[in-house]
Amino acid sequence: MSTPMHAERMDSRDAERIIQELEEKLKWERRILRAIVDNLPMAVYAKDLEGRKILANKVDLQNMGMASEEEVLGKTDFDMFPRHIAESFWQDDSQVLKSGEAVIDREELLAESNGEQRWQSTSKLPLRDETGKIVGLVGFGQDITVEKNLAQENARVQARIREQQEMVEKMIVDLAAIPDKVGKLVNGISYIAKQTKMVSINAAIEAARVGEMGRGFEVVAQEVGELSDRSSEAATQVRDAIKEVETLVKRIMEAWEESKAVTGNVLAK
């Protein structure tokens, strides 16, 4: 028959065993969680109310240029980043710690080296104790440098395309005005040709009237008439060429408008 003391010792050993099992389970769960955190392809970190690091995974250490977590624990971003970068980090940290509201997908300048910038998309969440009191924050950061550079390059390309579009549009406007200018010139030539024809006719009439003495007038009249005919023929050819140019300009403008529409759809995506 067990004594009360023996039963008490059994209860104590059972309690110790249960506590030990719970501690081992907790350690195992922590190891699993830590393995997950360290192998995520993004920065994961935690900070206390003063902005001091209390956790930093491998990617976060790489972002800071550190080799081990021990080097950063207890330090703030001001200890590891240029001041202007650290201040931007702390601005978001303070907002989360004071308001309890998360910051989601904030673009942050991560580092500057040899004129090159690195960017990350960061989300920060408040860390609370069992009473709901804010005791720190947890952050996640995904490197978006490639995406950022592509976006900037895309913006430059779009600006260049728009610049080229404006230049081509001006050239098309200038080209479209050419037929009108040439047409006015041709009309002038036609008018001169008609007047020249009238002069040749009058000269021929005058030559016929004066007889032998008007042979010189007759030769001049013939030459002037031929010149008038050639001018009229040239004017007709130019008019035909103008019609071809007008047709070509119209096709170019239609093709250009279609090209702009296609380009606009591509740039909008």
Care to give the gist of this entry?
The chain is α+β, with helices and mostly antiparallel strands and 269 residues long.
Give the helix/strand layout.
Layout: H1 4-39, E1 43-48, E2 53-56, H2 58-64, H3 83-99, E3 103-113, E4 116-128, E5 134-143, H4 145-210, H5 215-268
Antiparallel strand pairs: 1-2, 1-5, 3-4, 4-5
Helix pairs in contact: 4-5
Description:
This protein is α+β, with helices and mostly antiparallel strands and 269 residues long. The chain folds into two domains: 104 residues, Beta-Lactamase (2-Layer Sandwich); 108 residues, Methyl-accepting chemotaxis protein (Helix Hairpins, Orthogonal Bundle). The chain is 67% helix and 16% strand. The chain is built from five helices and five strands, in the order αββααβββαα. It has a five-stranded antiparallel beta sheet, sandwiched between helices. Strand 1 and strand 2 form a beta hairpin. It is rod-shaped, with a radius of gyration of 45 Å. It starts with a helix and ends with a helix. The mean pLDDT is 77.
